Amino acid sequence: MAKITAAKLLKMKQQGEKFSALTAYDASFAEAFDKQGIEVLLIGDSMGMVLQGHEDTLPVTVADICYHTRCVRRGAKDALVIADMPFMSYATTEQAMTEAAKLMRAGASMVKLEGGSWLLETVTALTERGIPVCAHLGLTPQSVHVFGGFKIQGRNQQAADKMVNDAIALEQAGAQLLVIECIPAELAKRITEALSIPVIGIGAGKDTDGQILVMHDVLGISTGYIPKFSKNYLSITGDIHKAIKLYKDEVAAGTFPSDEHTFN
Ligand code: KIV
């Protein structure tokens, strides 16, 4: 696989080629995923749950993400490495610039931030200063206490329209990728078609440009339950490398996610 950049993912979108992403937190898994051609590796703050055993992502710190980004960077050869900005590390634009710089110095090639219109100034400031941004809309887990739980977002017309407008505004502010999480498939399709930049879905149906899953869900070892939108590929293949290849192949072929993994 050649080095993956945001420009390469954009080209894939334009050519209708689907790409796959996985969370990764260490060098060994990063290398294994990279070898199977997974295009994007995310050092997700999902580590709060799957590595640290917390109930949500809120306890994760910038130092935690930096440590795991350094590990993943050493294992990843070609994949685009994105680091999550954790809870309250980008509450102001100034703070975002300081904290994002730490993640870039740890080896990230892009940072991911959760939020809509309130983030526009920050997205522009980071981009102008050389820090590429992946935005994140829908069920943004850092807002779990505002949502009152891990609930599907964008189900009514007003919320759906706001999400489409936020997505367009984030692209105009400079975001180069967008993750949309746990929203109805029809809304995800609308957002994907409205944007020029690649859109990566998780629990957002089959029509996004790319798919992302938490690696522990793909391997069936998450603490707690495996979400409806995920799929345990290890139980099908019995081998980690084959499991990752099957995930990539199914995303590329458009057979994952199927109806059983989709919200309407
Ligand atoms: O933290 C994470 O792993 C994420 C993905 C689920 C998109 O944000």
Overview of the molecule:
The chain is an alpha/beta fold. It is built from twelve helices and eight strands. Strands 1-2-3-4-5-6-7-8 form an eight-stranded parallel beta barrel, surrounded by eight helices. 51% of the residues are buried. The model has no long low-confidence stretch (mean pLDDT 97). The protein binds 3-methyl-2-oxobutanoic acid (KIV). Residues 23, 42, 44-46, 84, 179, 181, 202, 212, 214 line the site of 3-methyl-2-oxobutanoic acid (KIV).
SSE blueprint and pairings:
Elements: H1 6-14, E1 19-23, H2 27-35, E2 40-43, H3 47-50, H4 62-75, E3 80-84, H5 93-105, E4 110-114, H6 120-128, E5 133-138, H7 144-147, H8 157-173, E6 177-181, H9 185-194, E7 199-202, E8 210-213, H10 215-218, H11 234-237, H12 240-253
Parallel strand pairs: 1-2, 1-8, 2-3, 3-4, 4-5, 5-6, 6-7, 7-8
Bound molecules: 3-methyl-2-oxobutanoic acid (KIV).
The site of 3-methyl-2-oxobutanoic acid has 11 residues, from strand 6.
Percent of residues in helices comes to: 40-55%
Count of helical stretches: 12
The SS-based structural class is alpha/beta
Give the integer mean of the pLDDT values: 97
> How many strands in all?
8
Globally, the shape reads globular
Question: What strand line-up does the widest sheet have?
Answer: 1-2-3-4-5-6-7-8
Low-confidence stretches: none
* Rg measurement, Å: 17 Å
Major pleated sheet = 8 strands, parallel, barrel
Q: What proportion strand?
A: 5-15%
Order of helices and strands: HEHEHHEHEHEHHEHEEHHH
| Oligomer type | single chain
Instruction: Report the bound ligands by name, code or SMILES.
Output: 3-methyl-2-oxobutanoic acid
End-to-end separation in angstroms reads: 35 Å
